Amino acid sequence: MLEHSPATISLPQLLPQLQSDGYAVLDPTTVAQWAQHPLSELTALVPDWEGMPEDAYLKDGGHYRLRRHSCFVFENDQLTLVAARAHWQSLSYNALHGGMQRWFEPMHTQTVQQPVWLDLLSAFARTADALHRSSHPTSTVTRWCIEAHQFRIDTKNGIGRPTPEGAHRDGVDLVGVFMINRQHVKGGETRVFDARGTSGQRFTLSESWSLLLLDDARVIHETTPIQPTQPGGYRDTLVLTCRAGIFQGE
Question: Of 3.40.109.10, 2.170.120.40, 2.60.120.620, 3.40.50.720, which CATH number belongs to 11-244?
Fold first, then answer.
């Protein structure tokens, strides 16, 4: 199957694109501008995806997902790492893995203390806030709760599923999917659909530090399974979610 590259936008187009279509894709250079750091500093984070523990909660019996998870709060224009907490989603948003507390090993301290990391998540929270205020001009929301997930989907058993729950929403305000690394795999096509209609887009994120942003109230998304083209194939992503006020499950 041919891979379709996504149409990317510039920073001034970001908020209008999210408002009009419910999603937007930034190329790596624009992500670096958004985070206000050189792309080399983002690239320096890539080795932190090595050696992650296996996700022990996969209900399909698979062993293809490795994962770390940490939580943050953005308030008063300041990002703060908060105490480790379980990842929780309702069954209405995740029919496969919802309704249970899932505890994952936290991200490395050396990762989450990097200035580039702090500014990347701060840019994400500010985007969520701007999108929220564009549709709720009288909003008094000042606290944004961010969950960060490092994922590696591997193909050691022949196939890996980035979204085993299928097309879904996450129950948050804004979702960010960063492509970190993609080695010796085929598949992994991202699909974004209007949650209230029939229109949709399909493309393959392939460039390291390209970013898909999703207005979670307006679109559903999924990524198709991957297969190896050579032994040892894998797909690494960083998934961020941002929710106003409180974390899911609070």
Answer: 2.60.120.620
231, two tokens:
């032994």
For β-strands 234-244 and 174-183, DSSP reports them as antiparallel
Q: Which residues contact 17 (CB under 8 A, 6 or more apart)?
A: 9, 23, 24
pLDDT tens digits along 109-120: 999 999 999 999
Closest CA to 247 of 148, 168, 156, 162: 148
Helix (H, G, I), strand (E, B) or coil at 79: strand
Report the chain's C-alpha Rg in angstroms. Answer: 17
* Confidence bin at 248 (pLDDT 50/70/90): confident
| DSSP letter (8 states) at residue 30 | H
- Between the two ends of the chain, the Cα-to-Cα distance in Å is 43
Residue ranges per structural domain of the chain? 11-244
In whole angstroms, give the CA distance from residue 217 to residue 113: 31
This prediction has a pTM of: 0.94
Chain segment 178-235, per-residue pLDDT in tens: 999 999 999 999 999 998 877 889 999 999 999 999 999 999 999 999 999 999 999 9
Round to whole Å and give the CA distance between 250 and 244: 12
